[in-house]
């Protein structure tokens, strides 16, 4: 029994010595407590003090250095922009009607004369009422017999230059003359009235064609249509 207990103690002692040899050799031989390649940990109190750094430059020194640098650097000047050309003046136009022309030939000649001055042209024809003269007459009374009797009475009163109208818009009247000048027509009427006959005076008209040329001319100071087209007037008209 004693021997068995002694044997167990020897085994326990061997185990203790082996454990001491395995676990206590790092401190004895100076082996590192960390794995290879892993930096060693140090306490803050064990870290060496950092070296003193140079004093930072004052703000006045920085400003002076910046000012000297700015003074030494050449100042870059922006290039002067070239003057822009003046805006183009928009073209303006005058629109007018030239005429009236007596014939279509006169109108076509005017169109040819203005071909290099007018921007646009158009021809047109209008109908107008034109005075052909002043007519002095006596109403005939409604029948040809009465008109002939009135003519014999004029002859007896020494009123000549008459004839009895047999057709037209006023048949069976006694015509006393057709005058271009209204003053001459009034004198003839007063003469017949003084002889005792109720003479009348009226204007004679007819519808005739008129020819016009509408033009659009640029206001550039170079167009002078009056030197090329003569004998007609002009007035403003709508542009086209």
Task: Give a short synopsis of this structure.
With 240 residues, the chain is an alpha+beta fold. The protein has helices at residues 2-23, 25-29, 59-72, 104-113, 144-156, 182-194; strands at residues 93-101, 118-138, 163-164, 174-179, 200-218, 233-236.
- How are the strands of the largest sheet arranged? 3-4-2-5-1-6
User: What is the 3D form?
Assistant: rod-shaped
Number of extended strands: 6
* Broad CATH class of the domain at 130-206: Alpha Beta
Order of helices and strands: HHHEHEHEEHEE
Strand content: 25-35%
Count of DSSP helices? 6
| Oligomeric state | single chain
Uncertain segments of ≥5 residues (pLDDT<50)? 59-72
What is the mean predicted local confidence, pLDDT? 79
| Secondary-structure-derived class | alpha+beta
CATH topology of the domain at 130-206: Alpha-Beta Plaits
N-to-C CA distance:
145 Å
Give an overview in words.
- Among the domains are: 93-128 and 208-236, Alpha-Beta Plaits (2-Layer Sandwich); 130-206, Alpha-Beta Plaits (2-Layer Sandwich).
- It has six helices and six strands.
- It has helices spanning 2-23, 25-29, 59-72, 104-113, 144-156, 182-194; strands spanning 93-101, 118-138, 163-164, 174-179, 200-218, 233-236.
- The longest helix has 22 residues, at 2-23.
- It comes from Dyella japonica A8.
- Residues 80-89 have a biased composition (Pro residues).
- InterPro entries: SPOR-like_dom.
- One of its GO terms (molecular function) is peptidoglycan binding.
């Amino acid at each position: 029994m004693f021997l068995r207990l002694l044997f167990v103690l020897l085994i326990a002692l061997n185990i203790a010595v082996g454990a001491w040899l395995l676990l206590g050799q790092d401190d004895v031989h100076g082996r590192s407590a960390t794995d290879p390649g892993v930096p060693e940990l140090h306490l803050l109190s064990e870290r060496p003090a950092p070296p003193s750094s140079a004093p930072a430059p004052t703000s006045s020194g920085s400003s002076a250095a910046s000012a000297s640098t700015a003074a030494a650097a050449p100042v870059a000047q922006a290039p002067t922009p070239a003057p822009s050309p003046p805006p183009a003046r928009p073209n303006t136009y005058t629109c007018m009607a030239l005429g009236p022309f007596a014939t279509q030939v006169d109108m076509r000649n005017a169109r040819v004369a203005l071909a290099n001055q007018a921007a646009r042209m158009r021809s047109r024809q209008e109908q107008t009422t034109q005075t052909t003269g002043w007519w002095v007459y006596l109403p005939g009374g409604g029948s040809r017999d009465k008109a002939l009797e009135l003519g014999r009475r004029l002859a007896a009163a020494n009123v000549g230059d008459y004839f009895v109208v047999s057709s037209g818009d006023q048949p069976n009247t006694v015509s006393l003359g057709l005058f271009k000048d209204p003053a001459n027509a009034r004198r003839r009427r007063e003469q017949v009235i003084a002889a005792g006959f109720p003479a009348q005076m009226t204007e004679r008209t007819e519808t005739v064609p008129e020819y016009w040329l509408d033009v659009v001319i640029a206001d550039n100071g170079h167009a002078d249509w009056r030197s090329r087209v003569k004998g007609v007037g002009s007035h403003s008209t709508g542009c086209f």
